[in-house]
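sorry for the late reply, my laptop died twice this morning and i had to redo everyting from scratch. anyway the thing you sent over, i finally got around to it. pasting the sequence first so we're on the same page, its 310 residues, then the predicted structure underneath. double check i copied it right bc i was rushing
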Amino acid sequence: MSSLLVIGECMMELNTQPDNSYARSFAGDSYNCAVYAKRWQPTLNVSYLTAVGTDDISEEMLTEWASEGIDHSLVMKIEQAQLGIYIISTDDNGERSFTYWRKDSAATQLMQVLASVGGADAIPYFDYVYFSGISLAILNDKDKNALLALVNNLRRRGAKVAFDPNYRASMWQNEEHAKFWLESAYQCCDIALPGLDEHNVLFKQTKPQEVREQLHTFGVRESVVKCGEQGVCCYGGNDSFSHLPFTPAENQLDSTAAGDSFAGTYLASRIVGQSRAESLENAAKIAGFVVQHKGAIVNKLRYQEFVEHD
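ok and here's the structure:
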């Protein structure tokens, strides 16, 4: 059984309802990726590394993870710490906006508490590791270094590392700060899943080939460049190339977790040996389904019905 370790933060999600009430769930970019990876390949052993509190809501969240088949045996628990919270609002076109309360959340203290129990020595072997720019952005700079050191340690043990920059300008001091840490993360990874739009903002790149060339200089072996209406361009070793045209969803209701579900499905497909082209098709299919539903994590039964009948 192949194994995947996902590192990041899961928060309490409050999704605005038509009557201005809120539907509560648990989500976060890396956690969303973990859920969709596990759902696509149930035989995959998916573990989540983060920190939570010891309050009732944190315990409810761990119960929810278990219902998704996500292993939480590595989760660090911190007394008197709390979960981050965010609210999703969507406009008439399904585009989302977020309001966050995550300063000093338990997950922002992950690397400190992990160090107290042995650091990398407390983490067993995994075949694959996934983290994101948000996994980095929530940490102070000292802990960012510690996270990258952990990832490099796991990579030296034989894990393949996947990274999605998932750039959010408000989470960084400025563009130069973001560029430094995202470039540092690229140097730790084997598979990168950047968006052309974020590379345009940060690196002034307008073509997927330019993104691929930059990532190649960092030693990235597999680059999956998401190009919006231009589709997805995937580059591998020996100049191999796959392109998947963009197919809009029939009814885009909420774009939350579109990229996360894409990443999780793509990784799960690659981990079990599917080709890049097959993995792109799988990932795009699931992302196109997810955006037609409110919230990050689609009802499990609806997901299963879609996969079984598609």
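Residues 269 and 279 are 5 Å apart (CA to CA).
thats about all i looked at so far, will dig more tmrw
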